[in-house]
Every structure is written in structure tokens, then in C-alpha cells.
Design a protein that fits this description.
This protein has 451 residues and is α/β, with parallel strands linked by helices. Among the domains are: 174 residues, FAD/NAD(P)-binding domain (3-Layer(bba) Sandwich); 44 residues. Helices cover 33% and strands 21% of the residues. The strands form three sheets. It has a nine-stranded mixed beta sheet with strand order 1-17-13-16-15-14-5-7-6. β11 and β12 form a beta hairpin. The model has no long low-confidence stretch (mean pLDDT 96).
């Protein structure tokens, strides 16, 4: 089994040829810091909307090195932090914008000739225990009140008809999701950004940003607009250490399953697959007949440290493998080919945001808490409109300008995060023994986390 090396997705298609580093001091109109999905979408739409705007993107490693090239490949419509926080009308608008963003990513990928194994099969979330089933039914009832959610509750038989998981008690499904190969998408998007006329500089870390300036070891970029698109690596920026917590998520991927196993499992629609556990899992059937399966490993490293190469702890690999085999006994004899991890940005209130200060030219987007494959596209289009001063529906969405309070200092941050996830693990163990309702341990963890 390969461990780390950024991700399976990148190793499958080959790491990209290095782009040049920043050649020295530079003057431009817009400097985007971070060449993940957020930064690349922002640069793409800026140049499409106004080809006269001089745009550069600087990246510490290479385009797609972070979560954009490591995630589970869910192009879904989740409103990070929940639409309910915005009230009825604004929540409906935010949901509609995310639904449209799923379609927009697919449209751009098709128009730019990006073959990213995209298949729109919807999102399926399965209940495996009585407590999970109770949460599922409550969730389905709540979603039915929101236009655009389009959630359908499924029986155990209907669940198995879509994906042949073992012993499901029920599921919910919605159509606004597609499977995607993340590295193929981010590689193709970076190339589309360059075709649009923006310049990407790699191997150029930015330890500090300020109004009109991005400082790097290779030179200073002066720009009227400086946009922070660093997501889980935001803690590395001077003054941003407590802005977003870098949460770790881990994945494993199997060797290709034999045809007879797929005959039993089905999964013909390529639904993305999740569950209703507190420490939830997420999975996809890959285009080359593997199962990619993810969840929480070691959730947080002391001092907001971030990983460099995606290496995953053996106990996280073992835990994910056990959960994979529980859901798919037909995969029990299939070797695990690769394990890797990445960091995602978590605001203190778990709500993603985008914003731009016209007085300073500073902008930001992120805090996606693992739901960024789609949300980054909406963020990029919104940031482009904000920078260009366009009065569009996007700049009036309720997440624009939102700011969460900062995370607690250490050691409180480390103690709280690890205690919360220990409680969630304990709650899942209690519920696996047949508890009919959500464990009070999980309710306490929810209260502490504010989630």
C-alpha cells in the first residue's frame, strides 16, 4: 500500500510538470494567493469577465496540491454550516445558488474539454443503526420543507437497488451531486486559467499578505486586490493562525474490484455515498472500478500544524478499512492500494464565507468544512464579481461578508477538538449496539463544538 505522496488521484494521473516560480517583484491588478479550486475559479472568472485585468495566482507547492487534489470527489450542493442560519428566504437563495453551481462546474468542464470522470448520479446517505435511522427520518422531514433540497427517503430495498451496501436500514438521496476525479478537474482548471490569460506561479509560498502586497521569498507582488484562497493552509499566514482550524480528513482506495463483485454491489449510477454516523464516512465508485472511501483520521494536529505529503496514520487506515469492509463485504479480499490525508478549513461557527473589502482590496473565500468542490466555484464567481464591482445576485447572497469569531488559543483548541471527536466516536460505538436514539454524548459534543 502506498501511503501519502499527496494523493492517489495525483499519483494515478502523474504529478504535474512544475510551473515557474515568481521571478521577482511584480505589479498586477489582482493577486490570488492559493492555486486550489477557490483561487483557480476566481482567476478563471476574472479573466472571462474582463480580459484586461492582470491576474496572477501564487502557490506554495503546485496547483491542486492541497484539498483540491485530495478530496473525496463529491460535487454536491451542500450549504456549509446549514441554510437555516440565513433565515427562510436567504436560505432558499443560498441553496439555489449551490444547486446551480453543481451544473456550472459540469458546464465549464465540458466547455473547456476537461475530462474529470464526472458522472451525475446524485448523493446517497445511508443509515446503518436505529439511531442513524431516526436522524435520517428527521433530516428527510426537515429537508422536505425547503425548495431545492429535493431529498427522497428510500427503504432498505430501494437503498440496495442503488448501492448494494450491507444491512442498510434506509437512506436519503438527492439529485444535485456528481462524482468527480479531483486531480483531473483541478489540473484541467489550471490549464483553462492559463488559456484565459492568468499566470500561475508555483513553488512560491506567501508567509504574509497585507493591503496591496503579497510578500514571498521570491519577491513582492503589488496588487490593487489581494485575495486569500488558502483554505486549510490559512493558519500558515501571519496573523491568521486562529482564523480557520485545519481539520484532517483521510481516504483509502482499493485496487479495482472484480466484475463479479460489482455485479453484486451494483452502484451503476455512481452515486456519491455517505452515512449518518457522527464521525461520518464518504465514498465514491471510481471510473476505473475502485472504491475510494474516506473519513476522519487524526482530526487535528497541535498548533494548527498541516501535513506536507498526505501521509496517514496506520490506525486511521485500519479504521477506514474496517468501515469499508462493513459496508462492502465484497471488498474484504481486495487490497488497499493507497492511503492519504489532507486538511480542510473549519471556521469556528462551521460556516463558509466569501468577502472583499473595497477600502483595502483584501478578499477571501473558504471555510468549506469538506464541502468545497462545488462551493469553491460559487466563491470564485462571487469574488470575481466583488472585485470587478458587478452588482449581481451573487454578491447579495447571505454568506457574503460573513465573519466567524476566531478559534481559541492553544492548548484549548487542541483539547476541545480532540475531546469532541472522542465523544463522537464513543457515541457511534454506543449507537452501534442498538441504541434507538442519538447518544447524549453526541449532543454534548454538538453543544461544545457549536455545530
Amino acid at each position: 500500500m502506498r501511503n501519502g505522496d499527496v494523493s492517489f488521484w495525483w499519483r494515478q494521473i502523474g504529478l504535474p510538470a512544475p510551473r515557474p516560480a515568481l521571478p521577482g517583484d511584480l505589479d498586477v491588478d489582482v493577486c490570488v494567493v492559493g492555486a486550489g479550486f477557490t483561487g483557480l475559479w476566481t482567476a478563471y472568472y476574472l479573466r472571462r469577465l474582463d480580459p484586461s485585468v492582470r491576474v496572477v495566482v501564487i502557490e506554495a507547492r503546485f496547483a491542486g496540491f492541497g484539498a483540491s487534489g485530495r478530496n473525496g470527489g463529491w460535487l454536491t450542493n451542500s450549504v456549509t454550516g446549514g441554510r437555516e442560519r440565513y433565515g427562510r428566504d436567504d436560505g432558499i437563495r443560498q441553496q439555489a445558488a449551490l444547486n446551480a453551481a453543481v451544473d456550472e462546474v459540469i458546464r465549464v468542464a465540458d466547455g473547456e474539454g476537461i475530462d474529470a470522470d464526472i458522472l451525475a448520479g446524485g448523493e446517497l446517505n445511508v443509515a446503518y443503526t436505529p439511531a442513524q435511522l431516526a436522524r435520517l427520518r428527521a433530516f428527510a422531514a426537515a429537508e422536505a420543507k425547503w425548495p431545492g433540497a429535493d431529498v427522497v427517503e428510500l427503504s432498505p430495498a430501494e437503498t440496495r437497488d442503488r448501492v448494494g451496501v450491507a444491512r442498510p436500514l434506509g437512506a436519503v438521496w438527492h439529485p444535485h451531486c456528481a462524482r468527480v476525479h479531483p486531480a483531473k478537474l483541478v489540473r484541467g482548471l489550471a490549464e483553462a486559467v492559463e488559456r484565459a490569460g492568468a499566470v500561475i506561479y508555483e513553488d512560491t509560498p506567501a508567509p504574509a499578505i497585507s493591503p496591496g502586497r503579497v510578500e514571498t521569498p521570491r519577491g513582492t507582488v503589488r496588487a490593487a486586490h489581494v485575495l486569500r484562497a488558502t483554505e486549510g493552509f490559512t493558519a500558515n499566514l501571519r496573523g491568521e493562525h486562529r482564523t480557520w482550524l485545519p481539520m484532517n480528513s483521510s481516504l483509502i482506495v482499493t485496487d479495482p474490484l472484480p466484475a463479479e463483485a460489482w455485479d453484486r454491489i451494483g452502484w451503476a449510477h455512481a452515486d456519491t455515498l455517505g452515512d449518518l454516523a457522527h464521525v461520518y464516512t464518504y465514498a465514491q465508485r471510481t471510473a476505473d472500478r475502485r472504491i475510494a472511501f474516506g473519513g476522519r483520521g487524526v482530526p487535528y494536529r497541535y498548533g494548527s500544524r498541516v501535513d506536507t505529503d498526505g501521509r496517514t496514520q496506520e490506525r486511521a487506515v485500519a479504521g477506514l478499512t474496517a468501515l469499508l469492509h462493513r459496508a462492502f463485504p465484497d471488498a474484504a479480499d481486495v487490497p488497499i492500494a493507497h492511503a492519504w490525508s489532507g486538511v480542510l478549513g473549519v471556521p469556528r461557527d462551521w460556516a463558509a464565507s466569501v468577502g472583499h473589502d473595497t477600502a483595502t482590496g483584501l478578499g477571501w473565500a473558504g471555510g468549506y468544512v469538506g464541502t468545497g468542490v462545488t462551493t469553491t466555484n460559487l466563491a470564485g464567481r462571487t469574488l470575481a464579481d466583488l472585485v470587478l464591482g458587478r452588482d449581481t445576485d451573487l454578491v447579495h447572497l447571505p454568506w457574503v461578508g460573513h465573519r466567524a469569531k476566531r478559534w481559541e488559543p492553544e492548548p484549548l483548541r487542541w483539547l476541545a477538538v480532540n475531546a469532541i471527536y472522542a465523544a463522537y466516536h464513543a457515541a457511534d460505538r454506543h449507537e452501534a449496539r442498538g441504541r434507538p436514539a442519538t447518544s447524549p454524548i453526541a449532543k454534548l459534543a454538538d453543544l461544545i463544538s457549536g455545530h
